[in-house]
Amino acid sequence: MPESTPLARASDVPSGTTRRVEHDGEALLVCNVGGAFYAIEDQCTHDGGELDQGELDGCRIMCPRHGAYFDVTTGAALTLPAIMPVRTYPLRIEGDEIFLA
Amino acid sequence: MKAGTVAPAGPDLDQDYRHGFHDSEDAYRFKSAKGLNREIVERISSMKNEPEWMLNFRLKAYETFRSKPMPEWGDKALLEEINFDDIHYFVKAGDRAEISWDDVPADIKKTFDRLGIPEAERKFLSGVSAQYESEVVYHSVREDLAKDGVIFCDMDTALREHPEIVEKYLATVIPVADNKFAALNSSVWSGGSFVYVPPGVEVKSPLQAYFRINTENMGQFERTLIIADKGSKVHYIEGCTAPQFSTASLHSAVVELIAMEGSSIRYTTIQNWYRNIFNLVTKRAVAHKNATVEWVDGNIGSRLTMKYPAIYLMGEGARGEILSMAFAGEGQHQDAGAKVIHAAPHTTSVVTNKSVSAHGGKTTYRGLVEIFPGAVGAKTRVKCDALIMDERSSSDTKPTMKIDEQKATVEHEASVSKIGEEQLFYAMSRGLSEADATAMIVNGFFDFFVKELPMEYAVELNRLVKMEMEGSVG
Q: Which of B13, B31, B391, B457 sits at a 20 to 30 Å CA gap from B361?
């Protein structure tokens, strides 16, 4: 069944920025990469750091705790010390609203 | 500053530290004012004529260093003694790295002659790099290796002559934001070694780098990057010393090793910094499919060492070995250890750590073994032994094991002991003095490590351990 509550408003997440949202008790990070939206879990797979504190650089986000980079479009860990990918969530955009697909 | 302004660092610390001499700094080319700010970072970069991406790398790292807190673990009391505003971050003694020993400035040459470096080169090394303060002052590599495409140079030269390799691999193993000291190194790094071994090339005798701090309150921040391409093999050795000063200096290196498929890297360190150096170093290696990485890590000197050589076993069949020894005497804390991450199937690792604490010294073994889900058939064996020589000395063992794969084999053993009365009695009943008997037993305890060293280093290490033990009894 499609989700009925939006995760965030697209206008609240300008290009090149991220926004942490709570969903079902889980923290997700909505990322705007040049107008395209992606969502990943807001937790570094290396040491549990919160990725929303990191800087989004293109499609890469850095965990500020130990500097690991992830690709927010695929979840892949790009540099050590992270090895495992972060979970990704498919999204659906309706007007200004972002939903989990 | 004049030569010979050596103040004693405290009772007993100076005895027998034969590397404790200090040279004149009159002919130095540049010495930054104490403390760190953006201007100093920019100055270092411009003095080295670096490309813009490196300046940006440094400046970003500087901001990261500023924003990161000090470690919340380890010897916090000692760490608090570091005054970042009381350090010279860049000290340039000469103009360039000389390729002929005769061209090295006389003062510096004398230093390295006293340390036995050129002699060692003649005897058994493939290449030598000598770093004095912030920069490399002498460098040579055997011609046949250069013809095979082996690159061995200081990092500053590598950035000028091989920028594409440096940019591709730098900070990929240890990101700038890994920890506060890695960020500090990234912002003010200078010198260090760059090694690239082409596919299939075996460097048969070791490459060596020697690091020397000569200035009081100085920070040495070398950056080393070693890349062994497919099927190649290399052994790199480094040694470190500093003069006796009454105030502390900081040594904070970053060392990244990349062992590509089927290659092999051995990295040997004998750290004998003078006993007021803070030695806070990040060392990490990546081993790809069927590659081997070995850290051979000896810690004798420094006031506080925090160093945990790590190996990330990323490809199937990769192998890692970490052999480390630590000796902590009066006023010293050797907080050393090892980290091995098994992230692929059929990876194997062995960690062997032995430490001795005496005269009130403290040793800590801090280790991590992590086996990721899917690393089937991974095998690891960790052994750490601590020997405590007297009532005033102490030792902590803090091993962590995170095993997320059922089909893996994990062995761990640890022991803490005092020197055996019976062993001593036996040795003394054969005519040895108590001091000689103790030294012999301690040297035997470190034998696993010493036998992995080239002969010249093995002899020196045995001598150092014997010297450390003298005065501990009787």
A: B457
Closest CA to B224 of B182, B260, B262: B182
Tokens, residue A87: 């979970």
Residue A62 in contact with partner chain B when CB distance is under 8 A: yes
> Is A80 a residue whose pLDDT tops 90?
yes
Opening angle at CA B415, ends B414 and B416, nearest 5: 135
CB-based contact, B303 to chain A, within 8 Å = no
What are B218's two structure tokens? 């100085």
- The Cα B429–Cα B238 span in angstroms is 40
**pLDDT confidence of residue B96:** 66
With both helix axes pointing from N to C terminus, report the angle between B455-469 and B117-124 in degrees, rounded to the nearest 10.
140
Are B269 and B297 within 8 A, CB to CB? Answer: yes
The Cα A82–Cα B289 span in angstroms is: 18
Taking CA atoms, what residue in A is nearest to B373? Answer: A84
A81 interface with B at CB cutoff 8 Å = yes
Assigned token pair, B371: 């086996």
Can you tell me the distance from the alpha carbon of B258 to that of B227, in angstroms, rounded to the nearest whole number? 5
**What's the distance, CA B76 to chain centroid?**
21
Q: B178 vs A67: CB contact, 8 Å cut-off?
A: yes
Q: Which residues pair with B293 in a beta bridge?
A: B265, B320
Over residues B197-207, the pLDDT tens digits come to: 999 999 988 89
Helix (H) or strand (E) holding B422: helix B421-429
Nearest CA in chain B to A62: B177
- Under a CB-based contact definition with an 8 Å cutoff, are residues B387 and B444 in contact? no
Residue B361 burial (10 A CB sphere; 0-12, 13-18, 19+): buried
Q: Considering only CB atoms, which chain B residues are within 8 Å of A64?
A: 177
pLDDT tens, residue by residue, B217-253: 888 999 999 999 999 999 999 887 766 666 778 999 9
Residue B135 β-bridge partners: B132
Q: Which residue carries 């290449």 as its tokens?
A: B127
CB contact under 8 A, A80 and B343: no
Residues contacting B66, CB < 8 A, separation 6+: none
β-strand pairing of A69-71 with B233-241: unpaired
Comparing CB atoms, the residue among A66, A67, A83 nearest residue B343 is A83
DSSP track, B7-45? PP-STTTTTT-TT------TT-SEEPPBS--HHHHHHHH
Contacts of A65 in chain B (CB under 8 A): 177
Q: Name the minimum distance, in Å, from the CA of B100 to any CA of chain A.
A: 39
Contact B179 A66 (CB under 8 A): yes
Rounded CA-CA distance B59/B43 in Å is 11
User: Angle at which helices B434-445 and B455-469 pack, to 10 degrees?
Assistant: 140
Contact yes or no for B233/B203 (Cβ under 8 A): yes
Start-to-end Cα distance in chain B: 41
Record the pTM: 0.90
